[in-house]
Amino acid sequence: MTTGTVQLPAAKDVRDMLTGLVGKPVGVNPGAPVTPTPDDPVAVAVYVDPYMAINALCVLDLGAAAYTGAALALLPPGGAQDAVEEDRELSGLMVEALHEVVNVLSALFNVPGAPHSKLHKLYAPGEDLPGDIEGMLANFNRLDLAIEVPGYGKGALSLVL
Known about the structure:
By secondary structure, the chain is α+β, with helices and mostly antiparallel strands. Helices cover about 35% and strands about 30% of the residues. Helix 2 (about 60-70) runs antiparallel to helix 3 (about 75-85) and helix 2 packs across helix 4.
């Protein structure tokens, strides 16, 4: 699929990228769209082209945000599970690790013929989103995935163009 010159990656590419990143065989299957609600905060990574125009979003529910970040930083699974099930927010260290995860995921959009995409900003779960970003979350050109990080847990991730 394409939007202009930016393409949605295949689910296999997302699986391969996450597996290589966290060093565990991350399960990736079709899933439901990730949308923020007052009870379900999400993390939103904003990617821009060389002209600073937004060309992609990566939206992660709290589980995907906590578990991918914690697995990358080799944090104990129990702390990540507490962040999801009890605290409903990420620690500073988890946000820092998540920033690295979504920064690496920008490579999914950088294919031959497409403008270079880079991470512009990460909105951690619970941070207020600007209106234009919030409006883009409902775009239809998207890839919605359910992920499972072995030893940590399940979450959901959407890539939106």
